[in-house]
Amino acid sequence: MYDADTLRSAGYSLMSRDAVTGRQVWGKLEGTKLHVKEIAPVDRIVAANKAVRAENVGRGWGDGAVAMRVPMHVLMNRLMEPLIQDDKKHLDRVLNSSEFDPFRVRDGRV
Question: Which of 27, 43, 54, 78 matches a 20 to 30 Å C-alpha distance to 69?
């Protein structure tokens, strides 16, 4: 993922900031293309996922068992295109990566 310093050093400019949610939208114009990146705090969902994960220790996997809870901005920015393309190998690699571990609510692999 990225942070404000990384985006600023890559030439992005802050376009908007929501003081209540902490969400920031950054943009960078390259020719006729506008590249947009979004930063939003995930602390609350990560803390909630950690609690649910502790509750799920030892529980089996059944039909409909929730494996992950991913914030909407992460879904849209990182997972939507592979979902649309039905790229199961990419999704498997990303969802089982250590980067996505904070969004997991069960041990094991997705």
Answer: 27
Taking alpha carbons only, the member of 70, 8, 66 closest to residue 37 is 8
AA letter at 90: H
> In this structure, what are the phi and psi dihedrals at residue 29, rounded to the nearest 5 degrees?
-95, 125
The tokens for 44 are 């609350």
Determine the pLDDT at residue 1. 61
For the chain, which residues make up each domain, given as ranges?
Answer: 4-39, 43-103
Polymer length in residues for the chain: 110
Q: To which H or E segment does residue 24 belong?
A: strand 24-30
DSSP 30: E
Non-local (6+) Cβ contacts of 53 within 8 A are 104, 105, 106, 107
Give 29-63 pLDDT, tens digit per residue.
Answer: 999 999 998 888 888 899 999 999 999 888 877 77
Query: Which residue type occupies 80?
Result: M
